[in-house]
Write a structure and sequence with these properties.
single chain; about 140 residues; alpha+beta; 7-stranded antiparallel beta sheet; 2 helices
Length: about 140
């Protein structure tokens, strides 16, 4: 795995870890404005609509769980729970059919991880223990 991918995946993992602790979910910032505070975690019950997600298809499977945004780093992540390995692979296939190219990928018996890119938008898609995470990074020129 390249250092760039490893660094990006580690950053996404760093954002995902607080979601494992009880009582850490915050509803202080709406999903529509991920850049108001850094970092911000918010529980969700549907796919968030914002500049990061506007050109992505939401997963067809699973239950929306929470988002994690970091305006300073220019990252926004969406997490769904109760997603099977096959459903996670199907979601990645949908993204690839929409024009995302696979830059890096790895999988083992318990997890899947892929880095995708399309028109300067980078996605880090991970699936482990029934949780699908999509970390989104927009091109620098589109971030305000």
């Amino acid at each position: 795995m390249s250092r760039k991918l490893l660094g990006f995946l580690l950053l996404c993992l760093l954002f995902a870890l607080p979601g494992c602790a009880p009582g850490t979910h915050s509803q202080s910032a709406p999903a529509e404005s991920p850049r108001n505070e850094t970092p911000v975690m918010a529980e969700i019950d549907e796919w968030p609509e914002n500049e990061y997600t506007q050109n992505l298809f939401p997963p067809e499977s699973g239950v929306p769980d929470y988002t994690l945004s970091d305006g300073q780093a220019g990252l926004f992540s969406v997490f769904y729970r109760d997603v099977t390995r096959e459903q996670g692979r199907q979601y990645i296939d949908v993204l690839c059919a929409d024009g995302f190219a696979v830059l890096e990928q790895d999988a083992n018996a318990v997890s899947i991880g892929q880095m995708l890119e399309k028109d300067g938008v980078f996605l880090s898609v991970s699936l482990s223990d029934g949780v699908l995470g999509v970390c989104i990074s927009l091109p620098q020129d589109s971030q305000s």
